[in-house]
Amino acid sequence: MNNDICMFGLTKSGKTSMIRVIFQKLEIFRTFQLDPTNRMESVTVNLGSHIHFKIYEFSGHYDLNDSQPPEIAAMETCSLMIYVIDSQAEPFNEAVQYLRQAIQTVKQRSPHCECHCFIHKVDPDIEDNKKNELLQQIQKDISDELSKNSMNYIKVDFHVTSIFDHSYLEHFSKVIQRILPYSQSIQTLLDSFNLSCKIEKSFLFEIYSKLYLASDSQHFHSTNFQLCSEMIDVFIDVTCIYGKLDDAGQSQIKLSDGSILIYQTVNEGISLISIMKSENLERPFLLEYNINQFRQGLAQIFKIK
After folding, report:
1. Which GO molecular function, any one, fits this protein according to its record (predicted)?
2. Which of 68, 71, 262, 280 is the most exposed place for a label (fewest CB within 10 A)?
3. Tell me: the pLDDT tens digits for 205-237?
């Protein structure tokens, strides 16, 4: 089964920046120095020791009518297409038309490929109603373009993102989960873990990229994701200063509202991060037991898949 990703978008839309920041740890302020991508480039992604795929980034001026054998081969292996629109580059006519052409081209090579559109470079400080207006405008423009070309049957999922907050990590995570064959199994395992320990929310993170591979079925709050993502930075910083905290790689932080963030390494490069109320941590040995059970269950899921 091929689970690769193809990324398209006009020049300077932000494709390269996202890839470099997430998977190559480029500092955000250095993204302004990146040169435009002039040809198709690929990045091999290894999330932990069990998840492997490639991301193919196509140039912003790539001629969709002149695909060469390597580009055709890349599209044939992709299960997901991500198209990036620069939200600050109005009007969107050219970007919308290129999106439609990209969908047509990729669907010819990989008919079951999912289509996702990142409305990128959205100012994190603008009001939510302004973000919604922008989202609705671009959704309508794309819907009209697809309908005009008898492609209204194609589903496109939309994600509003910025590299200056956690939204790019949150939504890239959600897209990545679409190609993981065991997300639902891990979610069920997380639900069981939460119930046993009276946990409020849990995420399974890949540490290096800070992408989350799964979460429980409770309502998703971006604030919870942000807290857990920042917990990884704290753990890494403390580990760099004091060395490994313990053999299991565990740490806890008490928040101002009385909640506790619990960080636990459960597999190579993968950590379980949970939020629970302090009064529910009366029996730490029970938490430790259930973490071990979760670790064993996760190992079985990876082994089977």
Report:
1. GTPase activity
2. 68
3. 999 999 999 999 999 999 999 999 999 988 777
